[in-house]
């Protein structure tokens, strides 16, 4: 059974009394799914920031970074 999962990357649904109770997937597919979920979370957070005006222009970001670098050099 595991050899089939690794070769085909197709999930195996485990049922009990005809009702789906669990799913086996290979580790590569699991990692890809987790990576995709992470990207979706980042995009969702970015969309919320844009909607709530929680964004800064590139110029403002670079000025803040340069100011922090200068402050570190002066310490």
Describe this structure in words.
This protein has 75 residues and is α+β, with helices and mostly antiparallel strands. It has one domain (2-74). Helix content is 65%, strand content 15%. It contains three helices and two strands. It has helices spanning 2-8, 27-51, 58-74, and strands at residues 12-16, 19-24. A two-stranded antiparallel sheet has the order 1-2. A hairpin with a 2-residue loop joins β1 (12-16) and β2 (19-24). The protein is elongated. The protein starts with a helix and ends with a helix. The mean pLDDT is 90.
Which terms would index this structure?
15% strand; 3 helices; alpha+beta; two-stranded antiparallel ribbon; single chain; 75 residues
- Tell me the number of structural domains: 1
Distance between the termini: 62 Å
Lateral strand order in the biggest sheet = 1-2
What is the structural class?
alpha+beta
How many beta-strand runs? 2
Taken as a percent bin, the fraction of beta residues is 5-15%
> How does the overall form come out from the CA principal axes?
elongated
Share of helix, binned: 55-70%
- Low-confidence sequence ranges: none
Task: Describe the SSE topology.
Elements: H1 2-8, E1 12-16, E2 19-24, H2 27-51, H3 58-74
Short description:
With 75 residues, the protein is α+β, with helices and mostly antiparallel strands. The protein is 65% helix and 15% strand. It has one domain.
